[in-house]
Amino acid sequence: MPTITIDGKALEFELGQSILDVAHNNEMEIPHYCYHPSLSVVASCRICLAEVWAPNPRNDNKLEPMPKLLPTCQTPAGDGQIVYTSSPKATANQKAVMEMLLNHHPIDCPTCDQAGECDLQDYAYEYGRGERRCDTEKITQSKKDIGDNIMLYGDRCIMCTRCVRFADEITGTSELYIEGRGAKECIDVFPGIGINNELSGNVIDICPVGALLDKDFMFQQRVWFLKTVPSIDPLTSSGDNIVIEHNNNQVYRVKPRTNLEVNQYWITDEVRYGWKFVHDKTRVVDMDEDAELIAADKLQQASTIALLVSPMLSCEDAWLLGNLVRSIDKEAIVGVGPVPIDGDDKTFKSGFTIRSEKAPNARGVRRALGDVFEYDEWKKQMTSADTVVVTGNYPEAWDTPEISENQTLVLIDTLANGLTERADAFLSAATWAEKAGTFENYDNKLQLFDRAIHPVGDSQAEGQFAMNLQALVNDMEATVFNAATVRRRMADAGIAGMLDVELPQNTNRIDTDMPLSEV
Q: pTM for the complete prediction?
């Protein structure tokens, strides 16, 4: 394979890669603002310029320097090239670019929500000068409300144009444009048209500075206090990879996690803001002290059991619940809960698709339970059962089944609904953010997610309730629910694919190297 040497390190690469791509693939840092791997290359910010020496075929392939610094984001890597990103010439350029960018940039890091994850802040420290030499008055820009979820701080913008290219190339909606010229150019929206497409929140993530901010997260939390956990979209069948960012057992925001095979670099606004049910005021997090004892007693007395497993549950939860009822009633009537459908699938210009199926694990539940009834058929069959176990965990009101007066109802759910008061035994379920497990997406890809926060109130994972009830029914000591252990048991039981998935470690987050002191 061809090789290139960057800052003294010889690296192999594939033809067609840029110098910057080669560096990033080998975990070498070259400063950049305008470049993003999913967007067109404009080479406008100029901070990635480097000194490049290359073999000259007209001079016996002797190494010769290029006549000027080259943008590493736009320059193809060549066999035998030697690149210097920290030479005196390259360093002088980095300092000059930073000085020009900071000439008109406000010094408001203490109040900026981007502080702590701002490329401009980091590069100013690493590549900038220690003083401002420009004596002209700063050019200021206005603060603008440009969408339902986005606030634009114009004077912080460095005109990298990532957001404009995103709206043109990824969504194809083109709500953003560049107004003006020179030092007074700025990002804006067309009159009367805000940036409110279904992927709009991603421009917040790709903005390298604090120009585009999330209204929902503004002034809520300093990012260096947030803890990040890799997770999976809990609202749709897409299986988009996300990170949950939390502190003090409170979820503060959800952001995309890169997975080029599933969701590329993006998530929908539906997923970005749809986690609020975790802390919803209508959520029922308290249950009677003897609720589990009552539920176990009802199951022991049952002659025929019907179990409805929600497609919002993990594979592990579904399997344990299925084992529980089938251990009591081998002919238990087992079905999958209603799978919400909203419109049709929608595919954007980049190929990113929003799924109309609004359940994260319908396929995984079917995999875990085997031969089960679909919801409409289950409702017909369950009328013959004297005991019904229903699970919900939907993020909003759902199509709850009708339970007759002569049937016993054991309900495991999160939000209050028509069955909550009706239940003979109610068990408060934990949301996906409060447990670990596996979801199977629309493309039958199994993906793991980890627990971010501790269950609120008395709530527990459905799998934990299943294990507790199994222990009570069999007069045994209950064990603690562990998703990894359950997956191994599922694999031993012949359920395919349960050991072929690993918990991703990438959270797209670079932790600060600044020590934090307790106050």
A: 0.92
